[in-house]
Amino acid sequence: MLAGIFDVPRCDLYRAKEFLSPTTLTLPNVYYSPDFAAQVSRSNFSTPTSYRPVVLVGDANHELPGIWEVSMRGMAARLAHAVQPTLQMFMIDLTTRYRKPDGSWDPTWDPFESAAIPEHMIVYGIAYDEFGVVIYAFFPRYVVDNDTRTLKWGCGCYEVATEFRHHLQLNSMFHRAQLFRALLTVLEEARKASEKFSSPEYQIKCPQELLDLDKEWAQMGIEARDA
C-alpha cells in the first residue's frame, strides 16, 4: 500500500536491494538494503555514478509490529545506516563548495555565521508496519569552535511524526487521511530534492582525489569478488 510513496520522479527505486554508494563513504563489507530506497537516477545525474544521493528510504518494522515504543530506536538506526553515505556526501559537497583554499568560508554559506543546512539535504525515512507509520528526518549537522575556528561534522536524526503509529489500525477515514496527507508531504519534499540534484545547474562537489580513490577502491572490490 505504501509502495507508491517511494516512487519519486527522476529516481531509481530499489526494493530490498543494495543501492550503489561511494566505496569511500561506506563501511568495509557492511551493507544494508532497506525495503525501499529512492536514489537519484543515473540518467538524471551529471557527477560520477556512485555519488548519487538517496532522497527517501523506507523499512518495515518486522521485529515488533505495533510495539513502536520499543522498536522506534532500532528502526531509526536501520534507516540512518541506509542514508549515512548520502549525508557524508552532503558534508563533502558543502565543504568543497563553500570553503576557500585559505580555510575561510564563502559568505553565501558560512557555518561560523550559523548557516542553515539546505532543505534539499534533508533525507526522510519512513518506518512502517500493518498498524501505522513513523516518519524520520536525517540530515548533516555541524558544531563550530570559534576559538580554534574548527568545524566538526556529524549526522542528525529527528522524529518528524510519531502520531501515526496506529492510524492504519484505526477504522477511521479521518485518521487515514491525516496519515496519507503526511506521506504525500514527504513525497513532495523528496521530489523537490530529486529535482534539485537532477538540475543541470547543480552538481555535487567532491575533491578529485576522493573520486579517484573511490574508483580505485571500487576496482579492487571487483577484482577481489572475481578472484
Number of helices: 3
Give the count of structural domains: 1
Structural class: alpha+beta
User: How far from one another are the termini?
Assistant: 42 Å
What's the β-strand tally? 6
Secondary-structure element series: EEEHEEEHH
> Overall 3D geometry?
globular
- The fraction of residues assigned to DSSP E strands is 15-25%
Share of helix, binned: 25-40%
**Rg calculated over all Cα atoms:** 19 Å
Largest sheet: 6 strands, mixed
* Mean residue pLDDT: 84
* Uncertain stretches: 222-227
Question: What do these coordinates show?
Answer:
This protein is an alpha+beta fold and 227 residues long. The protein has one domain (3-226). It is 33% helix and 21% strand. The protein is built from three helices and six strands; from the N terminus they run E-E-E-H-E-E-E-H-H. Strands 1-2-3-4-5-6 form a six-stranded mixed β-sheet, with helices on both faces. The longest helix has 31 residues, at 68-98.
Question: What is the element layout, followed by pairings?
Answer:
Blueprint: E1 11-14, E2 36-40, E3 54-60, H1 68-98, E4 123-128, E5 133-145, E6 150-161, H2 173-198, H3 208-226
Parallel strand pairs: 3-4
Antiparallel strand pairs: 1-2, 2-3, 4-5, 5-6
Descriptors:
33% helix; alpha+beta; 21% strand; six-stranded mixed sheet; disordered C terminus
